[in-house]
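Dear colleague,

Thank you for sharing your sequence with our group. We've completed the structure prediction you requested, and as agreed, I am returning the results in plain text so they can be pasted directly into your records. Please verify that the sequence below matches your submission; if there's any discrepancy, let me know and we will rerun it promptly.
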Amino acid sequence: APETQIFVTFQWDDLNNMFPQPEEGNRQKFATNWEQVEAFEPNLDVWVISSYPYFVFPSASDIPSDYYSPLLSQTMKPVAIAEGGFSSQPVGFAQGSPDDQVIFLNAVHNQLGSRLVFWVNTLLADFNMESYAGEMTKQGRDPKDAEALSNFAFIGFLNSDGTAKPAIEIWDGFRRE
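Please find the predicted structure tokens below.
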């Protein structure tokens, strides 16, 4: 259908070489691998990213004020975030707090908001990892399989009990704009 929008999702933090990737050679942090996106042009209607910057920045306040904005200067097409978030609690080696979630949301909005056609925060509510592991056990699966998922357990705007975090108010404010 003509109204169908074509896009591929690119992991922004990886596209910017924020994780060591020896197989990609000596790429420097913040040197965006635009060729990976441009390989799909001119067929893209929207340039779409995912981003979980709490894996690469100790705090959301460490996200550079121009971390996402290079996307806008690289294309005139609309942009979107297909998935992402910032943890409201420390997980593994990564740090996070409710304030970090708010700072992250504002960073994305300030840098990309004028051209965002959609934005998905991966979770509305946090995972209850004990419950999740219990369900896995009931299904005969090793509850340790949930450990990787725990890295994303606290990126929701609501706690697992349904109580609101400060980020929900910011998110709802953006939705009303």
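Summary note from our side: Helices lie at 12-15, 34-38, 70-74, 98-112, 129-138, 166-176.

Kind regards,
the structure core
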